[in-house]
Amino acid sequence: MKQIAILSGKGGTGKTTITASLAVLAKNAVVADCDVDAPDLHMLLHPEVIKTQEFKGSKLAVIDEEKCTECGLCREKCRFDAITEDFKIDYIACEGCGVCTIICPVKAITLTERISGHAYISKTKYGFMAHAMLSPGEANSGKLVTLVRQNAKILAEREHSDLIIIDGSPGIGCPVIASVAGVNAGLVVTEPTMSGIHDLKRALQLLRHFNVPPFVCVNMCDINEDNANKIVSFCREHGIEFVGKIPFNPVVTEAMVNGKPIVEYALESDVAKEIENMWEKTLSALQYGSG
Known about the structure:
Blueprint: E1 2-8, H1 15-26, E2 30-33, H2 42-45, E3 48-55, E4 58-63, H3 73-77, H4 99-103, E5 109-114, E6 117-124, E7 127-134, H5 141-158, E8 163-170, H6 174-180, E9 185-190, H7 194-209, E10 214-219, H8 225-237, E11 241-246, H9 251-257, H10 262-265, H11 270-288
Parallel strand pairs: 1-8, 1-9, 2-7, 2-8, 9-10, 10-11
Antiparallel strand pairs: 3-6, 4-5, 6-7
Helix pairs in contact: 1-11, 5-6
């Protein structure tokens, strides 16, 4: 079983748009949307939820009113001001750090798990999909990403699929690290801007750290051909597999407005054809490369 993560050093490069198209082209792949803080792949793949799981990724303090003597130590030591004057827990302010449980002289406070989000297993017209949504303000997105990837692997084994396509979060933070660890390849989607080049290099450093073979494609390559060529030259100089230059085309926006992957909405467009060529190159490298 092969796993490929689609990454971008910054948001807005077209990562999810390309991921949706790859899901269409792959046919029998399992798709995992690992952008759990702001998932949007479902807007193009329209999954039908089959199973929902509660994700308990953080803790919440609970005060036993019968034991509590209202000594005030917990309020004094709580740096998040999560304990009210009448000794109630403000569940929004509470970070679940546990200081109150340690400081309480009568052991009236305990930590309990709270629901931090939900993970989903779904069916789309293109195959099965694992995805999730972290509740606003909650932490541990990396743990939720790990759960999504575990669900995707179980689906792939059950459905005898030999490929998992992972739509990662933008950037290089914790959820991205959880998305790329142990994958066979990372496809970095960048754009021909100075910030795009800078963040491409950061994403490549992350992949190098985890020994993940990198592929690179430039989206909207013709908005600045000089920068696009700089990216191609950079990849050649560093032995990085460059797989495609996708042109700018307003039909991509039309496809998104209509809630369809571009390779389905406008199959004969230059964008769709380039994504298809890029996918063939990537698939070939996945099958016969070091992954």
